[in-house]
Amino acid sequence: MIFQLTTGGPPTLPLVQTLPTGGKGGAGRNAGILQMRGDVGAVANFGSNTVSEFVRDGDDVYVAGPITLAPGCLHPDSAALTDGEVFVAGATCVESHAWPAGTLDGSIVHLTDSSAAQIALGNSWGAVTMKSDSVLQLGLTSSGTLNGVATPVALPGSANNTPLGGAFWAISWDSRPRTVPDSFATVDVQRNVYPIAGPTPPYPSNAPCWVANGPGNVWHTGNVPGQAISIFSSNDKGGTFYKSVSLPGAPTDITVSEDGRWLAVICTANDSGYVSVFAIDAHGDLSPEATADPVGVTAFNGVAISQ
Fold this sequence. Notes:
Layout: E1 2-3, E2 15-17, E3 34-37, E4 40-45, E5 50-57, E6 60-68, E7 76-81, E8 85-90, E9 93-98, E10 104-110, E11 116-121, E12 125-130, E13 134-140, E14 146-154, E15 176-179, E16 184-187, E17 193-196, E18 208-213, E19 218-223, E20 228-235, E21 238-246, E22 250-256, E23 262-269, E24 272-280, E25 286-291
Antiparallel strand pairs: 1-2, 3-4, 4-5, 5-6, 7-8, 8-9, 9-10, 11-12, 12-13, 13-14, 15-16, 16-17, 18-19, 19-20, 20-21, 22-23, 23-24, 24-25
């Protein structure tokens, strides 16, 4: 479903286009299944073992075709895009494909744990959050493909409860935040873990789960039981919780635009799925812009912004 933010007057977020991906869904408790980079995007088809490429042409979006996963690689539920690769994590594999050609590229990482929740890519390494209780660090070749090396990152007991979302801070030391229902934490390239206390009262009242990088070292997370976006800031030794911004329902995924000015969030309230857009200021504070009307579905899974 394609929504268009209009700002010439009172901001609105109308549904302007619906198009089939060419594949089947079915993923849950995951993030990053829908990605956009420039005018090209990707969506993972959990039930079809494919990734669909879609292209924006002006105000129109069309599906260009499917990319088939490697043999034995099943149920993709998260994707990440770089300029030349699409990375996919699923129940059995992590793999990279040349983008947008779709040919298998680099070395497949075969998983013995089927709980992958999200894949994210930084400047020199990648990572996958595993819902079982860990983060998997992925090595990259000099050309930016997977090198086949995957190293588990042990999480402390206070921060290993179902890690879900993740994102990178694109600076030289490649800090990688990820969240769990108990806390927020950063993991650096040396696999040092720095837990950060979240909003109070703690889990189960609050649980920052999904992650998007805002301006600089600011992080926006989807706080499911708190029905809010919880904001953090970080440095190379951890960070601090800033505040929470209330939502009308429970968030299930969030994203920030490439220029860092806009945040989109999916939330569910009153048995309907909603998409809302917020403006982000230079300090990471949020101002509500517009919320789409209900479109007849109880929930969405995946959100991305194209500018």
